[in-house]
Amino acid sequence: MDSTLAYIDQGSFLGLRALGRGPLAQCGWIYEHPVDLDALRRFHHNLGYGLLGRRVERSPLPFGRDRWVRWTGPADVDIAATVRPRGEAMAWLDEQLRVPIDPERGPSWRLAMQPLETGGAVIALVVSHTVCDGLGVIQAIGQAASGQTWDLGYPQPGARTRAQALRQDAAAILRSIPDFANAVVAAVRLARSNLGELSSSAGRSAPAPTSLDGARSVTVPSVVAQIDEAQWKNCMESLGGTSNSLFAGIGAKMGQVFGRVDDNGLVRLQFPVSERTEGDTRANALTGITVMIDPADVTASLRDVRAELKRNLAALSEARFELLGPVALAPLVPLSLARRLEGMALGAGAPVGCSNLGKLDASVNRPDGTDAEYLVLRQIESRTTADILDRLGGTMFLVSGQVNGKVSLSISSWRRGGPNSKEELQATFVQVLDEFGLTATIQ
C-alpha cells in the first residue's frame, strides 16, 4: 500500500497547518434507551482498523509529500463520569467539537459518550476532515458497526529512518514533476477565469495562526432537525423535485433569509461530489459543483432547482479539472501563500455549503448494535473565532442523511456582525421548513 498522501489530502493538511484550523465531521447518536458498553467498545476498536486508522507523518523535506502511518485511535471510549439532563444533549455535542483534534499529532479522531439522566446516552464521533471526508466517515462507521475491519497496510510511526525518508521523498518529488507541470497549466487557467475572485479574496486573507484561548474561540451556532422520511418524500414529490433538490431548496431559502445572496438575489450553493470507489483509501475522495439558485419560488416548485443540479452534474468533468487541476502543487505551496488563497478557496460572495449524504445503511445508526433514536450529522470549523468568521463573511453549512425512517438535517450558521444565537437560528429554520410544509423534531 502506497502510504503517500493524495494531492487533495496534502492540500487539506496544508490548509490546516497554514490556518491553524480546519473542518471537523461529527456524527452523534442520541439514545433514549441504555447503551451496550461492550458493543460500543467493539465499535471503537473496529474504527481504528479502517479508514480512520491513520494519522499524518511529515516528510523531512520542506516540499516533500507527507505520508500516512498507522494509528488505531485512543485507548478507549471517553465516557463521562456524571450524568446530564436529556435537554443538554446538543450542548454536550457542541462541547465535543472543542476538544482538540489533530491529524498529525493526534488524536485524529475520538469517540465519547455522555450518560443521560433518563437512562439513555449521547455518543459522539469527531473526525478531522483531513483524515476522512463525510462519505468516508459514514463508510468507516458502517463497517465498524457491522464488525468489519480493514488493514490499510500503513507502516508504524517512525518506521523510516531519516536517511530512508530523505531518499524516498526526494525520488517521489522527481516522479511528480509531470504532475507539477500539468498543475501549473491548470492553475494559470483557473487564475485567468477567476480574476475577480482572486482580487476579492485578498481582503479575506488569513493572518498567521496563533494559539486560541477558550475565551476567544467560538462554536458556530447549529440546529438539528429530524423529519419523518415519508413526509420528506411527499414534499419533494409534490414540488416536482428529488431529495437532493429539496435539500438544495431549503439551503437556498436559508441563505436568502440570512442575506447570503448576490446582486441578482441568487444563492450560491456548493456541493461536494463523491468520487469514492471500492477500496479507495483517499481521505478526501471528492470534487464539487457550484449551483446558483433563485430562492424566490423554491417553496412552490423545485423543478428549476432540479434542472440546475442536473446541468451542473453533467458538466462536472470540466469543472473537476478547474477545481482539482492545481492540487498537485500543494506540496510546493508556502503556508503564507496558502493563507492568502483561503478566500478564493471558499468561493466568491457568500456561498452556502451543502452536503447531502443520502440514504444511509442501517448500520450507521447502530454504534452499539441497536438503533439510536436520533442521528446527528454535522460539519463545523474547529478552533475559530468571531473575528475570523466575520472576516470570511460568515458561514452557512447544511448536512443531511436518511436512516431509520428519518431525515436528519442540520444547519450551522454565522452571520457577519451578528446576531448569532442558536435560538434565532432555530426559529428561522423552523419557519423555513414550515414554508415547505415540513414539520420537524428539533434537537
UniProtKB/TrEMBL annotation:
InterPro entries: CAT-like_dom_sf. This is Diacylglycerol O-acyltransferase. It comes from the Bacteria.
